[in-house]
Design goal:
285 residues, alpha/beta, Rossmann fold, five-stranded parallel beta sheet, 13 helices, globular
Length: 285
C-alpha cells in the first residue's frame, strides 16, 4: 500500500530542494471525522496484514484509536518503552489501554545501547532524520510484523509574516523515509492519509475561524484538542517526546553534537499559502 492513499502526498529533495507534491481529492469531502472513518476502512482494505496502531499516549494517537474503534476495525496497539526514561510519556497510553481493556504489545528499545553502539546515527542517516526523538520509534516499529499505522503529521497552518500558510517541515516527514527504507507496510501519517482528510481538516469551520482572524492563535496546534473533542472526549495533556529525562544526561551532549550535520542536511521547509494548498487539494470531480 502507498504511504498516502493514491500517493496524493509525495515529497522530493532535501534541505533547499525539499518539496511536497499534492494531488486533488477524488471524492466529495465530508467532515474530518467521517473522512477519518473512511481512511481507516481504506487502510483495512489496502493491507492484507494485521493492523497495528502505534500509541505513545498523545491526543493524535488517542484520536486515531477512537476512529478505528468507531469504524469497527480490528486492530492491535503497540507502545514503545525506553524503560525508565519515558514512563512519564507512555502513562496516558497505558491508562487508555487499561480503561478500554486493550492488551498492548510493548516494544522495548534500549536507547543507551543504541547510542553506545552508534545504531542511533545509522538509523538517522538511513531515515534522513534530523530529530533524535524519532529514532527510537523508527527502531521500534521494525520489530513489528503488520500494517503499522502512526498518527504523525495532521494538516496544519500557521501565520507567518502576516499570511496564513500550510507549513511542511522536512524534519517531521522522516518517518516516511524510514517506512520506505525499511520496507514497512502501513502509513506514518494517518491524520492525512487521504487527500479528503487534509482538505476537510483545512476547511473545518474551526480552522476557517482561525484564518479569518476570529481566534487569537497563530496556528492550528492550539485548536487541535478542541477539534478532536468535538467527536470524542480526550483529556488535555502536555505534549512529550519521551526524551525529556534523557536530554538531561551527559550522554545527550554527544547525541546533540552528532546530529548537527543531519539537522543541516535534512532541514527543508516547504510552504504554501493557505488558499493555494486548498486549490491543489480541492475535489477534482
Amino acid at each position: 500500500m502507498d504511504l498516502t492513499y493514491n500517493d496524493y502526498y509525495t515529497t522530493s529533495g532535501n534541505a533547499d530542494t525539499w518539496e511536497v507534491h499534492l494531488k486533488p481529492c477524488t471524492e466529495q469531502v465530508d467532515s474530518y471525522y467521517r473522512e477519518c472513518i473512511r481512511a481507516a476502512k481504506l487502510i483495512e482494505n489496502e493491507s492484507s496484514k494485521e493492523i497495528i496502531l502505534m500509541f505513545s499516549g498523545g491526543i493524535d494517537g488517542e484520536f486515531m484509536l477512537n476512529i478505528f474503534k468507531d469504524a469497527n476495525i480490528h486492530f492491535k496497539v503497540a507502545i514503545i518503552s525506553y524503560g525508565k526514561w519515558n514512563k512519564h510519556d507512555s502513562k496516558y497510553a497505558f491508562d487508555y489501554c487499561n480503561k478500554h481493556k486493550i492488551n498492548p504489545k510493548i516494544i522495548e528499545v534500549d536507547i543507551e545501547d543504541m547510542v553506545k553502539s552508534e545504531l542511533i546515527y545509522e538509523i538517522a542517516e538511513n531515515g534522513k532524520a534530523s530529530a533524535h526523538q524519532m529514532i527510537g520509534v523508527m527502531h521500534g516499529i521494525t520489530q513489528l510484523n503488520g500494517c503499522i499505522v502512526m498518527a504523525n503529521c495532521e494538516p496544519q497552518v500557521n501565520l507567518e509574516n502576516g499570511k496564513w500558510v500550510w507549513d511542511e517541515p522536512e524534519r517531521t516527514n522522516a518517518y516516511r523515509h524510514w517506512y520506505k527504507y525499511a520496507d514497512i507496510e502501513g502509513t506514518p501519517d494517518f491524520p492525512r492519509y487521504t487527500a479528503e482528510q487534509s482538505y476537510s481538516y483545512l476547511t473545518d469551520p474551526l480552522v476557517k475561524q482561525l484564518v479569518n482572524g476570529e481566534l487569537d492563535y497563530t496556528g492550528t496546534k492550539p485548536i487541535k484538542h478542541t477539534l478532536y473533542n468535538r467527536y470524542f472526549y480526550q483529556k488535555e495533556r502536555f505534549k512529550y517526546t519521551g526524551w525529556e529525562y534523557l536530554e538531561r544526561q551527559p550522554i545527550f551532549n554527544e547525541i546533540y553534537s552528532k546530529f548537527t550535520s543531519l539537522r543541516e542536511r535534512y532541514n527543508g521547509q516547504f510552504v504554501l499559502e493557505y488558499k493555494d494548498v486548498l486549490d491543489k487539494l480541492r475535489p477534482n470531480i
